[in-house]
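In this section we walk through a basic example: taking a raw amino acid sequence and producing a predicted 3D structure, encoded as discrete structure tokens. The instruction is simple. Fold the sequence below.
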Amino acid sequence: MLLLLLLCAGARADDSGSLGWTFGGPGADEGTCVWQTSDGGFIVTGTNASGDSGRPSLWLLKVTAGGKREWSHLFPLGDYYSGESLLVGDDGGFTVVGVTLTAAPINFDVRLLHTNRQGEQLWDRRFGGDGWDWSNFVSPSGDGGYIITGWTDSGGAAGGDLWLIKTDKGGVREWSRSYGGFNHEEGFCVQATNDGGFIATGITATYSISEEDLWLIKTDSAGQLQWTRTYGGAGFDEGRYVEQTRDGGYIVVGSNSSRGAGETDVWLIKLTAQGEMSWSRVFGGLRRDWGHAVHQTGDGGYVIVGSTLSFGAGGSDVWLIRTDAQGIKLWDRTYGGPDLDFGNAVQLTTDGGFVIAGKTHSFGAGGSDLWLIKTDSFGMVQPAREPAGQ
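The resulting token sequence is shown next.
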């Protein structure tokens, strides 16, 4: 079963204004992951707290190519439920990983949900124990199943461990493994690798120099560790997204407070196939800036999405950065208004542009709204071809 994975110096254009498409109500609504679908539209997952119950629910939203809501489903499976990451399968359905509160006040479990092409639930799986178990990312495992990462304090060492869960195509667990020491470790992204294993990135407080450092772990197909790498300095450093590059190495994006210009900076790292650093770049200003997702582009360069407090219209803004193959910035764009706006995921689109998912406090119905921004290949926002339809 072939699954397609989400895709998560230069001029700066401040694209302030009511740009993109917002969806939501008076509560706290957010988009965490976006895909382009075969019809040219988009599927988005995230969290919606504007429903009748007022409780956060997993949200699955289908949007046309012109930004009009096609359909929307909420999955209120407990007192708290959120969609963290999303896949599209060759059956036309959607697979979402998230978290749910199963026993107040702190017993969270991982949930893996699969729907048909209309967003109607086909199956739902839960993974966890008697503690706090959290998922951040799901991707294809390369054999038709799924690989999930997050963290668990239901097992392993004290403090919470990075957690990998491998399932078959029906979401049935085949194995799970935890990695870490006596302090906190967490996985933010995991991908299958060309050799049949997996690469994951996140944070480690056990093996760090000072606070928390970026952690990279490489496993075989059964989750057995092959190597680990730690990168960081005296501050807080993290890896948010990793993918294998066409040369067999890896590209990682995250945040770094140990070097750079401000409180934290976007950190882009190119690694060899064995996890040795080839180069690293930081992007940022005098305040806090952070990276959420990165993808290699057709020309061998990279596109990064994150958020910035250093640049833009005010509060925090969505930040899109385009680099060449050596991580040198070609251009960047900010999108936002006077309040807090965040970019969580980016995907390359079939027209050569990009689509960004996140949340906005500057525009929309109130609270925070799910925000989709469609751009051309230079990051310029493309006007909607039809009304969004809230």
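Looking at the output, two observations stand out. The domain at 3-375 is CATH 2.120.10.30 (Neuraminidase). The first strand starts at residue 3 and ends at 4. In the next section we compare this with other chains.
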